Amino acid sequence: MTGTIPLQYFLIISTLMFFTGIYGFLTRRNLITMLMSIELILNSVNINFVAFNRFLYPDNLHGHFFSLIVIAVAAAEAAVAIAIIINIYRNFRSIDVDKVDEMKF
Amino acid sequence: MTVNDFLLMRHELMLVAIALILLITDLMVKPAHKSAIVPFAIALFAVQTIVGFLPADEGVLFGGMFKTTPLISLMKNVLNIGVLIILLQSWPWVNKPENREKMSEYFILLFSTLIGMYFMISSGDFLMFYLGLETATIPIAALAAYTHHQTKSAEAGVKLILSSALSSGILLFGLSLIYGSTGSIYFDQVAAVYSNAPMQVLAFLFFISGMAFKISLVPFHLWTADVYEGAPVNVTSYLSVVSKGAASFILVLVLYKVFFQLFDIWQNVLYVISVLTMFVGNLFALRQQNMKRFLAFSSIAQAGFILLGMMAGSQMGMTSVIYFILVYIFSNLGAFGVVAAIEASTGKILMSDYNGLYRTNPKLSLLMMLAMFSLAGIPPVAGFFGKFFLFTSAASAGLYWLVFIAVLNATISLYYYLMVVKAMFINKTDTPIAPFRSDSMTRLGLILSGLGIFVVGFWSQVYEFINSLSVGLF
């Protein structure tokens, strides 16, 4: 496959996205931003699957299927998470995790 | 595919049908008759539990994505028993006036998660495994936030959904690396080519950290206590018993069938995690005053013991894990049943509220004592045999130091389990919980768990039956 972007580039991008997601999840204090960080992680996984499938195993489609399913599940997860976050806002009048600390240790 | 092929997944199909029937019934029933849904749902699930015990064929469906064996049916039946007891025990709470509008949601969400667990245990490839895992997790978050007007419940829901989403993200990254390094997502094909190449070891570590979240192993346990405290008691018992049991089942299956080439590596990883889990769970349980938090840390510690059996890598190891989870279901549901019954009738949840409980509610206290003895592993009850087999299998694999540490931890745990017994039987107070009588469903649930604590221990056919189905690593 001459003239295409090599596999390593995709893997570097996806690894960066993955760890950016982890970092964002651990440092951000806003629930919606934490959810966005998780989406970043899931999308890095999708890039991995699709890139591996395209470059290493072009004769099967497992990676493509997997990334489609991941997208669907991520949507379901975001729907439930946002519903719960709205509920948090109604109870606490804030979506800052530092305020949502009724239970500790 | 013929009809017979579909019958291989009768556990799943029946439960899907039950969930749909409940959904439609909820729409058709007049608001005045809504309370009839609860006995209806429990009866349907009782049928599901009984049908589950009918002998089933072995087979593979969907090109290897779904498979079932007698061992897998047995695991599903173990989960069914736990869910049935939880449904019986949740009777007074579901029937409360504030839950009247949404009582069928409780059952539908609970059954949806159980369907996910079925598919997860039956999975033959990582795609089905991941789908099952997510189907099992997402509705639980909605259940944890079920009493949405309470701030604690909302907080439990958001903590559960965010940490489980993060953990499945980490797990997925591991799965993508597994796919990249082996070219397949089917368990048997992955197992055939898996080796200890650095990338595959890294993929395995991602995988195990994702799973450790689900079983709440240290250092991935931080969500556990908060979610357990905030969620409604019956959802908590579901999380601590059924959810944890299902995740342990699939972990032991995947470790034995897919990652057996990495046995040396995962044995070391689990060794460290197990020691940490036992110590952190036990030491934090010592300082808890809220019964739900107390049981949360106790269940973290119990998960550390479960790892002992997995690490053995033998047929006996797998048997002892399944057997221990069966025993753990009965003993933990006994404890949670008492906590739920007391919370439903008086709203009290602190350990100091239990002072003098024996004088006012002797039967509940006796069951609580049995459950505590079983969790601690004191000889006459089933918990002793569960721990005994776990320790034996670990010792026969040569892990003597680990068994020593585990016995040390069992001793620590004895202290705080006996604190509850002391509060109920010895501590005196002027204002004990007034005598109350639970409804017949709750009592049936409590009696079932009490019976289980005795019968599973003494009836050795249970152990032998599990042992005849289990498989070892080599």
Molecular shape of chain A: elongated
- Intertermini distance of chain B: 34 Å
Which blocks of ≥5 consecutive residues of chain A have pLDDT under 50?
Answer: none
Helix content of chain A: over 70%
Radius of gyration of chain A: 18 Å
The overall pLDDT average of chain B reads 91
**Helices and strands of chain B: which structural class?**
mainly alpha
- E-strand count of chain A: 0
Major beta sheet summary of chain B: 2 strands, antiparallel
Provide the succession of SSEs of chain B.
HHHEEHHHHHHHHHHHHHHHHHH
Q: In angstroms, what separates the terminal alpha carbons of chain A? A: 55 Å
**Biggest interface between protein chains, with counts per chain?**
A-B, 43 and 41 residues
Main pleated-sheet profile of chain A: none
Instruction: State the domain count of chain B.
Output: 1
Strand order in space, largest sheet of chain B: 1-2
Number of helices of chain B: 21
| Percentage of residues assigned to helices of chain B | over 70%
The topology string of helices and strands of chain A comes to: HHH
Unreliable residue runs of chain B: none
Describe how the helices and strands are arranged.
The complex is a heterodimer of chains A (105) and B (474).
Chain A: H1 7-27, H2 31-55, H3 62-92
Chain B: H1 3-7, H2 10-28, H3 37-52, E1 59-61, E2 66-68, H4 70-89, H5 91-94, H6 103-122, H7 126-144, H8 151-182, H9 187-193, H10 198-215, H11 222-230, H12 233-257, H13 263-286, H14 291-312, H15 315-346, H16 357-360, H17 362-376, H18 382-396, H19 400-425, H20 440-458, H21 460-469
Antiparallel strand pairs in B: 1-2
Helix pairs in contact in B: 2-3, 2-6, 3-4, 4-6, 4-12, 4-15, 4-20, 6-7, 6-12, 7-8, 7-12, 8-10, 8-11, 11-14, 12-14, 12-15, 13-14, 13-19, 14-15, 14-18, 14-19, 15-17, 15-18, 15-20, 15-21, 17-19, 17-20, 18-19, 18-20
